[in-house]
Specification:
Blueprint (H helix, E strand, L loop, with lengths): L2 H33 L3 H11 L5 H8 L3 H13 L3 E6 L2 E9 L1 H22 L4 H31 L1
Antiparallel strand pairs: 1-2
């Protein structure tokens, strides 16, 4: 393959990556509107979809203060999207759990995407999936590094 063809493929990969990011962002913005929440609330629900979490864990994952997490959880509780309950091993701690009220519309929104995505990815060989996974991991790590760099810019402003 010529250098020009390889450069064009890399440029095309960059454009497709940007287009994917914009499409995911658009879906999430629309989902947040349908659920009646903001984007941070939606991200919180995504985290809780994976299992119960403490307010402190949510704060760390979302980059929020404890006061902001409390305000967010109050909003989500009012919508009956989350419940607070004592942690079984240490009743002084509180766990946050997503409710069926939230799960039902979330599954309605994201379930078909997950099902269709599973069908799409089934066409790849193990070697191709390894390459895709490597690209996705490296892309995520790049974004995480630059998020920290960009956040540091705010300190200098």
């Amino acid at each position: 393959m010529s250098r020009e063809n390889l450069d064009e493929l890399r440029a095309q990969a960059g454009r497709e990556s940007q287009a994917l990011q914009a499409a995911v962002d658009s879906v999430d913005q629309t989902a947040a509107a349908v659920l009646g929440v903001n984007r941070t609330d939606l991200r919180c629900l995504e985290i809780l979809f994976g299992g119960d979490s403490t307010p402190g864990e949510l704060a760390a994952k979302l980059g929020l203060t404890s006061g902001s997490v409390t305000t967010m959880l109050d909003r989500l509780s009012k919508l009956d999207y989350v419940v607070r309950h004592p942690e079984p091993g240490d009743r002084r701690k509180v766990l946050i759990r997503i409710t069926e009220t939230a799960l039902s519309p979330i599954m309605q929104i994201y379930g078909p995407i997950a099902e269709e995505g599973a069908r799409e990815i089934s066409h790849y060989t193990a070697a191709q999936l390894g390459t895709v996974i490597d690209f996705l991991r490296r892309s995520r790590e790049l974004q995480e590094r630059h998020r920290s760099r960009i956040a540091a810019l705010a300190e200098g402003v």
